[in-house]
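Q: Here's a chain of 83 amino acids. Please give me its 3D structure as tokens.
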Amino acid sequence: MFKDALGRDIQIPTVQLDFAMPKRFNLFYIDENGEKQIPVMVHRVVLGSYERFLVLLPEQFKGVLPIWLSPVQVNIVMNIVGE
């Protein structure tokens, strides 16, 4: 769990079971009886969805991003390198 800037607990990392993707990719294995079985995929996500993580960053820093993440810093570097 992660505590956001407003003090709320948010779940970012997840572990999920996926029953649909193996069927879509026609994945199977042969069991001990010689029969085809459809596997179950396990997805492990450390940051949750990237969109959710990227939305949490500006909220966590209350809009004042650290210099290494600031869009203005990137603009300055681009202008110096571009000249």
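Q: Can you summarize the key feature?
A: The mean pLDDT is 79.
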